[in-house]
Amino acid sequence: MEQVACWPAGLEHISCHFAIRHQVFVEEQGVMVFTDVDRYDREPDTIHVVAASGDQAAGTVRLYPLDHEGLWKGDRLAVLPAHRTGKVGAHLVHFAVATAASAGGLVMHASVQVQNTPFFEHLGWQRHGGVITYHGLPHQPMAIDLPGATADAARFPDTTELRLPLGDLQASPLLVTAG
Questions:
Q1: Residues with Cβ < 8 Å from 70, sequence gap 6 or more?
Q2: Quick one: what percent of the chain has pLDDT higher than 90?
Q3: Strands 71-79 and 107-113
Q4: For residue 175, what are the CA distances in angstroms to 36, 78, 134, 156?
Q5: Taking Cα atoms as reference points, which of 110, 109, 84, 66 lies closest to residue 4?
Q6: How far is Cα of residue 8 from the mean position of the Cα atoms in its chain?
């Protein structure tokens, strides 16, 4: 059984977070050109999450508050191809929901690629409006109520040395935000 650990990325793992996002959104999907980094990556309240399966970095998600009334956004969910048949994506989504709930969040929104809508519905999310185009792809706005959301607390991998299975791709210094 796959052991998945999820935790907020600190300085030692933030480059893994950005490298996985770059691999999925820029290199693999071509959704964004050059980088997927935006202004939310520099906001002090943004939480960058990393997931690992064993000692292998496997996925990421980003979350942040949209207001002071309890509205949160979850986005940049990225799971490397070798881990898409496991539970990494579900662990990341549960971790993001529980983290926002524990910070006093009331509702979390996300815009998910249409083919991922059933996955999110299985995790308790509901459609929130009609399909929209985001970065040239159809996305389904989704929402989930956060009160009562529970999940395992942050689990860290057994090692701080994570392998990043991205072939020859190296994390660019341009993808790392200053801490």
A1: 104, 105, 106, 107, 146
A2: 66
A3: parallel
A4: 9, 15, 21, 23
A5: 84
A6: 10
Does the pTM exceed 0.90?
A: no
* Residue 86 neighbours by CB under 8 Å, 6+ apart: 2, 4, 53, 58
Strands 71-79 and 137-145: unpaired
Q: pLDDT, tens digit, for every residue of 48-68? A: 999 998 888 999 999 999 999
Alpha helices in the chain (DSSP H): 14-21, 88-102, 117-122
The pLDDT of residue 41 is 96
Which two tokens mark 21?
A: 């996002």
Give the whole-angstrom CA distance, residue 175 versus residue 41.
Answer: 10
Which among 77, 79, 75 is positioned nearest to 63, based on CA atoms?
75
Residues whose CB is less than 8 angstroms from the CB of residue 52 and which lie 6 or more positions away in sequence, other chains included: 4, 5, 58, 157, 162
**End-to-end CA separation in angstroms for the chain:** 35
Q: Looking at residue 132, what is its pLDDT?
A: 95
Which two structure tokens, joined as six digits, stand for 153? 């607390």
Phi, psi of 104 (to 5 degrees): 90, 10
